[in-house]
TrEMBL record:
A biological process term (GO) from this entry: siderophore-iron import into cell
Major subcellular site: membrane
Biological source species: Spongiactinospora rosea
Pfam family, one: FecCD
Topology class, membrane: Multi-pass membrane protein
Location(s) in or outside the cell: Cell membrane
Membrane-spanning parts: 23-43, 73-93, 105-126, 132-151, 163-183, 208-226, 247-272, 292-311, 323-340
Classification via InterPro entries: ABC_BtuC-like (IPR037294), ABC_transptr_permease_BtuC (IPR000522)
MF terms in GO: transmembrane transporter activity
Annotated GO CC locations: plasma membrane
Protein name, as recorded: Iron ABC transporter permease
Family: Belongs to the binding-protein-dependent transport system permease family. FecCD subfamily.
Keyword annotations from UniProtKB, A to Z: Cell membrane, Membrane, Transmembrane, Transmembrane helix, Transport
Length: 347
C-alpha cells in the first residue's frame, strides 16, 4: 500500500474539528437534507401546492397533483438511500486504499456490477429482483479485485493515479461489453439503456424493499469499520502495532462497500462521482476521523443525489434528465481538479 499521508500525522491533526463544530454541522446537514427531501416531493414536471403535498403525505391521491406527489415519495426515498450508499461506499474506499481518487464509478466497481447484471439477464434469464442484487454484488466485488490487482502492478504498488487509470480503463471496457451484450437483444435493450445511465425515476416501494436488507447490512459493516479505518490511516505497520489485523480490516470494510455498491447499482444503475465528491466535502466539515466522516458521507451523499434528481426534473420539464447525467456534470470537473492537485499520492 501507499504511504500514510501527504504530511503524515501533522496534517491529520490540523484536520480535526471540535465536537461543537461537528454537532453544529450535523444539525445543518440534517436540516438541509430535510429541505431537499421536501423539495423532491413537491417539485416536478407537474406543479403542486403545499395542500396537495400535505394531502398526499396523508395518503390522499384523488387529484392528478396528489397522485404526482404520491409517486415522488418512493422516488425520494430511493434517491436518499442510493445517495447515502454511494457516499458511504466512497468514504470507505478512500479509507481502505488511502486513495483520494477512489470512487465506485471511477474504480470500475459500478460498471462491473452493471456488466454482471446485463450478462445474467441476457444469457441466463435473470428476472428475480433479489437475484439482481446478488449478481450485482458479485460483479462489483470481482471488478474491485481486478482493478486493484491491475493497479498494483509495477513499481510503487497501487498508487492513486494507477488505480484511477486502471479503473477508468476497466469501466470503459465493461461499458463496451455491456453494449455488446445488450444491443443484439431488442427485448431488453430499451430498458437497459435507461438503467445504464443511472436514475431513480422508476422507484417503487417494492424496489426499495428488495434492496433495503442489503443496504442495511452494507451500512452496518461500513459504519462499524470506522474506528479500524482510523488506525489504518496511520499506516499498516502502526495499525498492526496497535493490534489491528490489517488484512481483515481491509477485507471487511471493502466487503461493506461492495455490498452497498452492488445493491445501489441493482436498484438505480451505475451512478458515478457521488462517492468521489462527498468524502472530500465531508473532510472540510468534520475532519478525517472516520467515526464522523462516514456518517456525514452518508448524509451528504443522500442530499447530493436527491438534489441532483430534483435538478434533473426541473431543467428539462416535462421530461427528466437522469440523475446519473447530473452527477457526471458535477463530478467530472471535480475529478479533474483532484487529479491536478499537487501531492495527490494518498490520504
Amino acid at each position: 500500500m501507499t504511504a500514510v499521508g501527504t504530511d503524515h500525522l501533522p496534517d491529520a491533526a490540523r484536520s480535526r474539528r471540535p465536537a461543537r463544530v461537528r454537532l453544529l454541522w450535523s444539525v445543518a446537514v440534517l436540516a438541509a437534507l430535510a429541505v431537499i427531501m421536501v423539495a423532491s416531493v413537491a417539485l416536478g414536471s407537474r406543479g403542486t401546492t403545499w395542500s396537495d403535498v400535505l394531502a398526499a403525505l396523508g395518503g390522499a391521491d384523488g387529484s392528478l397533483e396528489q397522485a404526482a406527489v404520491t409517486k415522488r415519495i418512493p422516488r425520494t426515498l430511493l434517491a436518499v438511500l442510493i445517495g447515502a450508499a454511494l457516499g458511504l461506499a466512497g468514504g470507505v474506499m478512500q479509507g481502505v486504499t488511502r486513495n483520494p481518487l477512489a470512487d465506485p464509478g471511477i474504480l470500475g466497481v459500478n460498471m462491473g456490477a452493471s456488466l454482471a447484471v446485463a450478462t445474467a439477464v441476457a444469457f441466463f434469464g435473470l428476472t428475480s429482483p433479489t437475484g439482481y442484487v446478488w449478481v450485482a454484488m458479485t460483479g462489483a466485488g470481482a471488478a474491485a479485485v481486478f482493478v486493484y490487482t491491475v493497479g498494483s502492478l509495477g513499481r510503487g504498488g497501487a498508487t492513486p493515479l494507477k488505480l484511477a487509470l486502471a479503473g477508468a480503463a476497466t469501466s470503459a471496457a465493461f461499458a463496451s461489453l455491456v453494449s455488446a451484450v445488450v444491443l443484439p437483444r431488442n427485448d431488453i435493450a430499451g430498458g437497459f439503456r435507461l438503467w445504464q445511465i443511472g436514475g431513480v425515476g422508476g422507484a417503487s416501494y417494492e424496489r426499495i424493499g428488495h434492496v433495503l436488507p442489503f443496504l442495511a447490512v452494507g451500512f452496518a459493516i461500513c459504519l462499524l469499520s470506522a474506528r479500524a479505518l482510523n488506525s489504518l490511516a496511520l499506516g499498516d505497520e502502526v495499525a498492526a502495532g496497535l493490534g489491528e489485523r490489517v488484512a481483515v480490516i481491509r477485507a471487511t470494510a471493502a466487503l461493506g462497500a461492495v455490498v452497498l455498491c452492488g445493491a445501489a447499482t441493482a436498484a438505480a444503475g451505475p451512478i458515478a462521482f457521488v462517492g468521489l465528491i462527498v468524502p472530500h466535502a465531508c473532510r472540510l466539515l468534520v475532519g478525517v476521523d472516520h467515526r464522523w466522516l462516514l456518517p456525514f458521507s452518508a448524509l451528504i451523499g443522500a442530499g447530493l443525489l436527491t438534489a441532483a434528481d430534483v435538478v434533473g426534473r426541473m431543467v428539462a420539464r416535462p421530461a427528466d434528465v437522469e440523475v446519473g447525467i447530473v452527477t457526471a456534470l458535477i463530478g467530472a470537473p471535480f475529478f479533474i481538479y483532484i487529479v491536478r492537485r499537487q501531492k495527490v499520492r494518498d490520504l
